[in-house]
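re: the backbone from monday

yeah here it is again, tokenized this time
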């Protein structure tokens, strides 16, 4: 099966003590049509988004 694979995700960041929503961010990726929608690229997209979320959390400054 050939075609682009899209991953469109939304992450909500909340304060763990109060439950208050701190912010929301979208993380979107797409694969090359050459990879196909059933290829391992989709798993790589999810891993890339996961790594970006972890990086964002680590670099966040406490307020």
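seq for it, each position gets an aa:
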């Amino acid at each position: 099966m050939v075609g682009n694979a899209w991953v469109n995700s939304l992450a909500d960041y909340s304060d763990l003590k109060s439950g208050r929503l701190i912010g929301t961010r979208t993380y979107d990726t797409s694969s090359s049509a050459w990879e196909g929608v059933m290829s391992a690229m989709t798993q790589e997209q999810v891993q890339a988004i996961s790594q970006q979320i972890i990086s964002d959390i680590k670099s966040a400054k406490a307020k």
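The chain has a mean pLDDT of 81. Helices lie at 41-59.
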